[in-house]
Amino acid sequence: MPYVVTDNCIKCKYTDCVSVCPVDCFYEGENFLVIHPDECIDCGVCEPECPAEAIKPDTEPGLEKWLQINADYAKVWPNITERRDPLPEAKEWDGVADKLQYLSPEPAKQD
């Protein structure tokens, strides 16, 4: 039962979850984070750390597409292991419904 990042992370990209992950299974896109489902150890420590409440166990109904999105992007985006500032527009986008259309397929820019 891996955890998955869902659409409320899009255009927010809080990284509080990254700093508590014991196995570094988060990957970073331009405006979204994902969890690699094969690396996640199902510990759940990331879920309560997400201010946007975008992290869910994949056993919740209707999350199949998010599991696939997480798996696909985890293969091509860079790994992130340290907390960073959220996107500047995070507060205004937190809670906006149906944000999948805004998901950028681009990887995060490396420092």
In short:
This protein has 111 residues and is α+β, with helices and mostly antiparallel strands.
Strand order of the largest sheet: 1-4
Q: Which ranges are low-confidence, i.e. pLDDT below 50, for 5 or more consecutive residues? A: none
Question: Approximately how much helix is present in the residues?
Answer: 10-25%
Largest sheet: number of strands, sense, barrel closure: 2 strands, antiparallel
Tell me the Rg in angstroms.
12 Å
Shape estimate? globular
Task: Report on the architecture of this protein.
The chain is globular and about 30 Å long. A hairpin with a 4-residue loop joins strand 2 (26-28) and strand 3 (33-35). By secondary structure, it is of the alpha+beta class. It has three helices and four strands, in the order E-H-E-E-E-H-H. The N and C termini lie far apart (32 Å). A two-stranded antiparallel sheet has the order 1-4. Strands 2-3 form a two-stranded antiparallel ribbon. The mean pLDDT is 96. The chain is 18% helix and 11% strand. The chain has helices at 16-20, 64-74, 90-93; strands spanning 3-5, 26-28, 33-35, 55-57.
